[in-house]
Amino acid sequence: xxxxxxxNSPEIEDRISELMGLVGVNHPRIIREMIISALKxxxxxxxxxDLKQMRTTMKEMRYTSKIFGPYRNRRKVTIFGxxxxxxEEPIYQKCVEFSRLLSQRDYMVITGGGGGIMQxxxxxxxVDNSFAVNIRLPFEQDTNPVMTESDxxxxxxxxxxxxxxxxxxxxxxxxxxxxxxxxxxxxxxxTLIQTGKNPPIPLVLIDDENGDYWEVxxxxxxxxxxxxxxxSGEDFxxxxxxxxxxxxxxxxxxxxxxxxxxxxxxxxxxxxxxSPLDSEQISILSxxxxxxxxxxxxxxxxxxxxxxKDQPDLISLPRLAFxxxxxxxxxxxxxxRRINSFASIEDAxx
Length: 350
Prior knowledge:
It is built from eleven helices and eleven strands. It has helices spanning 10-23, 28-44, 48-68, 90-104, 117-125, 159-168, 180-194, 214-226, 245-255, 279-288, 329-340, and strands at 76-80, 108-111, 130-135, 153-156, 172-175, 203-206, 240-242, 259-265, 268-273, 300-302, 319-323. α4 (90-104) packs parallel to α5.
């Protein structure tokens, strides 16, 4: 039987509606499409391993939303770093201090749930302010003792689902020194922000006291990537390197002084703000950042768009909208920093 996302036979539509009514679902239009997707998969695919992967992905994503949902209104920082870092190492203690400072500023932390830097992040923030986003591995990845009894532990079968959780729920990412996994997470986060597949967020690389990890990495990026034209100079605005945990927290705090969040609505880039901008500030932005505008566009103050009703908790925020050229994401980050420079002394906590 042919299945269609727009309209199927009355018999199929009635049975789907009856099932949703029996269970009771939120947003039945979306749930209907999910049911159709599952039925189409069962109809079109006979390779069992593929169907198992789809099933597990759906189950893991559902559980992710269930665990994180109650904490949607609290900002969260994902912390990456080596599972092999010992508690007596200075960088471990630096991560404990960093996450403790975050929790004092009412942030929650998300770690991979294992040992090393992951345990340090959970330790500093405390179990009440922590999530553990774990993965089934043959070694190195038992849930750390801080989070063993927590109800905010998730254990994934698939890395790709875990990676979605790390970034989907994060308002910032902090990276400490680590191995292949940490470098993978650093480059993936940079790539997603650079290409606009992840909304702009602060990315902080926290080095040891000698600067012999991220600063060395930075030298490599300049010498081997920038020199060859494989990246542009503005891409260095996508991240901050620091040795100071307090400075790292300030970088994150400052990013959200005026800027709240953003999304695309069709071709329009919509920035939600904690406080409105005045005409003089809009004029300054227009003179300094016209390069990020698509031809014929301008910066304009606006209210919520119709399509933003799927985020009802953000409807009341003031907005700045424009057609973004979808190229200069490094400049977009600088643009957000410039918006944050308009914060009043009171807003800045001075």
